[in-house]
Amino acid sequence: MSNQTLLDIFLLWTAANKSMSKQELLLMLKEHSLKDGGREDLESVLEVAIKDAQSNLNLTLKTDTCGFCDGDFREVMMAYNRIHGYVSLVVCTVGVLANALNVAVLTRRELAAAPINRLLKWLAVADVFVMLEYVPFVVYRYLVLPETLDFPYSWAVYLLFHMHFAQIMHTASICLTLSLAIWRYIAIKYSDKSHILCTERRCSIAIVLSFMLPPILCIPTFMVFDIHTKPVSDSSGHGIAYHIDADKQGRLYQANFWVHAVLIKLLPCSILTVIIVWLIRALYSANRHQKNLRNYSACPSAEKTVQRQHKADKRTDRTTKMLLAVLLLFLVTEVPQGILGLMSGLLGWCFFKRCYDLFGELMDFLALVNGAINFVLYCSMSRQFRQTFRQMALRPRAPRHAEPDESHHQQTRFTEKVKR
To answer: How many domains in the chain?
Structure first.
């Protein structure tokens, strides 16, 4: 909530000679928040209330000179923001179940040994933590808060935890995705040395670093944001509202935007873009090589060797295509966030408040979808993943008490045959 908005509310209240009581003001805000059956964020509610009060009192207040992100699309984004709470709950529920299945399949014996699958498994674990933690935030922020307009200290503490935890886990997902791309690049570019370069130990190091680096990279955010208090008036008299804020004029605040936008978002996206272009070229070159092998394999003795090589190349291509889909979806999600963060650092608080906040819910939605859709990609593009999932889902489990009996019957039959 901006200081200008609070000043406007105060001016309207005093201009009306306090004809509106504190309780009536609160009821007015709640009425606007539930208007047309929707729930708006508090700042939008206050803006609407100010406009209505200005019209009734014939007052002219100082308008905001910030003209960023104006236009018809703003109304569209505000309409989506009103339903974001419900949409994100659905996505989180589906995403948690999907990633739990990813972990269950990728830890099966047939898939667990491959380093690529280990990276995918921990990527699913990071996404599960992000979505589980997001649920209580979205319930209170979008479903409870618009009706109560209550900002207790416990909510501020959780909001601070949510801000840091979500950023750390999301940064861990970025590091794991980058490790995934680099791992695949090495495996294809240096295929003759992949057994030396792509070892289990190095895979473990990549996973550990992916979870150790994010807290270090997020140190500026830890130092910038803190819990602040603000005196408010409620039905019982005077109270205190707790909220998360930062020193917007400090250098550390500006540096935080650059670290978040450039180091955490745009730099990994730039590296991924280069790797994706190279992987696409490698796929095109491999397909052309396979066609040449099929055209020149006239010798019958070499035909079986060519067929085996063709099957191995097809498996490699399917894996690479699946990873390309994961990486491209990641770019679609992260690049807009990086650009908005960079522009917020360049253009200042006004752009951040008008634009970053406006698109924040959409950015969260894209990030949640990115984490929830991987199960669909794995099933549609990996035959081994589909087969393992089918075996896991359809395999009947024999009762435990029947296992000794069956073993005993087999041993009895074997003993009888020996006696004969």
So the answer is: 2
